[in-house]
Amino acid sequence: MKFLLQTTALATVLLVAAGCATPTPEALKPTDVPQAFTAPIQQNAPVWPQVNWWQSFGSTEMAGLITTAQTDNLDLAAATAQVLQAEANSEIAGSSLFPNLSLGANADRNGSKKSSTIITPPTTGGTGTTFFGGGTSNSFGVTLNASYQLDLFGKARDDLEAAQETVKSAQYAQQTVALTVVGDVADTYMAVLALRERIAIARQNLDAASRILSITQAKVDNGVSSNLELSQQKALVSGVKAEIAPLQEQEREARYALAVLLGRPPEGFDVTAQNLNGIAGPAVQPGIPSELLERRPDVSESLADLASAHANVNAARAAYFPQIGLTGSGGFESAMLGTLFKSQSFVWSIGASLLQTVFDGGLLEGQSDLAKAQEMQLVANYRKAVLNAFSNTETALGQVYSFADQEKNLADEVAAAQEAFRISELQYREGTTDLLAVLQAQQTLFSAQDQLVQSKLAHLQAEISLYNALGGGWTEADNPDTTATVGKHPDNYLLPILPF
User: Fold this and answer.
1) What's the pTM value of the predicted model, to 2 decimals?
2) More exposed terminus of the chain, fewer Cβ within 10 Å: N or C?
């Protein structure tokens, strides 16, 4: 009967604790997830990028650099270390669910020189006194101690859950960094090639301007042209020379940035390719917006952070309940080493403790309010991450379409400008047109060529942005052990959390 009452009382306590659990927060509203993307989409393209999408750009060198960055990038190394830290903290949190055992041994020897005096009865008409000197004593012991904090109200489990969700968050953050590093390497590599191509175009323009200058000089020497035309062409040549040096500096800085992304010092680092010829990204379409949330590690990271915060809310709630602990020890104690492990030397003790906070000046209430406020913040962060994911995808889709159209039109302009400059140079050589027409044709050609290279770069970088916006081929299914569990709407935060 006594056992039945004890069991019933314990079950009642556990049911009350379970009934006081906080509701799971819902983070997303139905209107947060659109039915479809509105930006232009290439319908015949495959849905979602491949995991190794960069290998389809037609650049073996870029693919090799990305492979190097995936192992040597320092940001990725730091993110990996953060995962290890989170796993260690999770192991620490999990230790609270197990008893603490410790084994101790002691050997003591005590001594004293203090004398003792004992008065004895008289024997022959007088008194007798006996003196006893100091002595020594030994003490030996071997003891096993155990303590266990009962987790009847789930605080330790909530702390462990919070730590486990933090591990998931760190793993998602690591994947986000990995995707970012791949995109940054591709962006920077292409920027280097584009700058080299622009430098080559500027030098071609300088050669053409120098060629026109020679013709003009010959005409001035023969009295056909004026010194005004000669000065105008000299000014053009100097202006073209002045544009080359800044481009060379930008190219150097881009190479330095690329070296750092690869975990290398910039000194002596170089790439082989000289232009963007032959590099093109494969087409891709985004699929359904709701599926995007399962393909973005940064969104999953925000969701795991929210789940961790929710577990902290539950842990702060459980802190209102009493703390019940059990202790026990057993071992052997003896004054002689030879009899230490005899049965008569065995000693033991058991005990229980209960600690209930009566007054703490608002500490527990403040900790609970802090946990709830942090959870509300992470609800907003998660919703923002979701909306940013949709915005990034829409923006990248629009940029891919716009820059592709711009690139096509600029290519047509370059072809026409090249023909116009060829004709104007020929006519100027033959004396059927003036220098102004040549200068205008040359400036039009140089500007169109330079803009075309920049448009090519913008188009390629927009495609990279689209692959990153779509998660770079990453899926939640690739990480079955990192699935956050949180609901979708913040209205529940209006409900009071009462300390029972």
Assistant:
1) 0.83
2) N
